[in-house]
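Inverse folding, one chain.
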């Protein structure tokens, strides 16, 4: 039956892991902690471009959360989110171009 997945959904904990990939959490944490990119990606098997894209998407997500905090009036949480953005937005990951440098 082609719609069998709807009749037998995954348990809640397995469903979460089928959607979210936690393989790069350690790598992104190391990057936010100030490690060099080469050292941070050492244990991750994902390609460098995937890591860079994930960090950039995390930055966009944090900017959206920061905007939401501003709307809600939570300035303390907004400051913490801003610190997180500052910690990941650096060096080669947010370089405009690897080929054009002044």
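Residues assigned per position:
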């Amino acid at each position: 039956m082609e719609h069998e997945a709807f009749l037998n959904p995954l348990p809640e904990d397995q469903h979460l892991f089928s959607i979210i990939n936690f393989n790069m959490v350690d790598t992104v944490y190391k990057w936010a902690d100030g490690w060099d990119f080469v050292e941070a990606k050492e244990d991750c098997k994902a390609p460098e471009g995937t890591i860079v894209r994930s960090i950039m998407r995390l930055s966009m997500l944090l900017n959206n959360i920061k905007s939401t905090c501003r709307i809600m009036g939570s300035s303390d949480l907004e400051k913490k989110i801003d610190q997180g953005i500052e910690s990941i937005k650096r060096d080669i990951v947010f370089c405009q171009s690897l080929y054009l440098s002044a």
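The two ends are 60 Å apart (CA to CA). The chain has a mean pLDDT of 81.
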